Amino acid sequence: MEHEVKHDQDDMRFYIVIGDEEAELTYSYTEEEDMDFDHTFVPESARGQGIAHKLARCGLNYARENNCKAIASCPAVEAFVKRHPEYNDIMLWP
């Protein structure tokens, strides 16, 4: 099943509608205008299907396309980046 990632810039989140539930990746901006990906949630019924990875990829691609650096405060995003070093060029690590 293909899930479409939507971006709600007002609420600062990427999300996927799954039935009557939503998976989401939230972010905020630092004073330097870097994107801090701070929380990922996937409903229990949709876990193990790569939803969190799809959200992380979409968020990081958005950061890159908008010339932002990214911070992985969320453990799911951090794990994704460690498996996908092609995003290291935009990451800010503590």
What's the quick description here?
This is N-acetyltransferase. By secondary structure, the chain is of the alpha+beta class.
Query: What is the succession of H and E elements?
Result: EEEEHEH
Query: First CA to last CA: what distance?
Result: 37 Å
Proportion in helices: 25-40%
Stretches where pLDDT is under 50 for at least 5 consecutive residues are none
Q: Approximately what portion of the residues adopt beta-strand conformation?
A: 25-35%
Protein name: N-acetyltransferase
GO molecular function, one term: transferase activity
Domain N-acetyltransferase: 6-92
Keywords: Transferase
Q: Topology of this structure?
A:
Blueprint: E1 6-8, E2 13-18, E3 21-29, E4 35-41, H1 51-65, E5 70-72, H2 75-83
Parallel strand pairs: 4-5
Antiparallel strand pairs: 1-2, 2-3, 3-4
Helix pairs in contact: 1-2
